Amino acid sequence: MNESTATLKTADGLDLYVRRWQADDVAHRWTFVVVHGLGEHGGRYQHLAEWFAPLGATGLRDGPARPWAEAVAREDTRRASTPCSTTSTPP
Q1: Pairing of strands 57-62, 15-22
Q2: Which among 43, 67, 77, 87 is placed 20 to 30 Å from 36, CA to CA?
Q3: What is the rounded CA–CA span in Å between residue 39 and residue 7?
Q4: Coil vs helix vs strand at 70
Q5: Residue 66: which H helix or E strand, with range?
Q6: Using alpha carbons only, how large is the chain's radius of gyration in Å?
Q7: Listed residue (87, 74, 64) closest to 13, CA to CA
Q8: Residue 11 DSSP one-character state
Q9: For 32-55, what is the HEC assignment?
Q10: Are strands 57-62 and 2-9 parallel, antiparallel or unpaired?
Q11: Tally: H helices and E strands in the chain
Q12: Residue 39: pLDDT above 80?
């Protein structure tokens, strides 16, 4: 099985880093994507790739954590710099 990395660009310009699993000797027929929770490592799902790759599957999962953390930090900065208005006064 071959594991490689790639970068996907979102419509709003965010770079998403992914790791790709694919069998060397089986033609691609379908794709599965692993979306895991925060704080979990995508490598825990390699067993799925090892199971599905011989069936013609290509697996994708998130790549290095740092770019994701930077993206979250950028979004938090955008939110913090956006003025807020209140429509009611707290009791």
Answers
A1: antiparallel
A2: 77
A3: 21
A4: helix
A5: helix 65-81
A6: 19
A7: 74
A8: T
A9: EEECCCCCCCHHHHHHHHHHHHHH
A10: unpaired
A11: 2, 4
A12: no
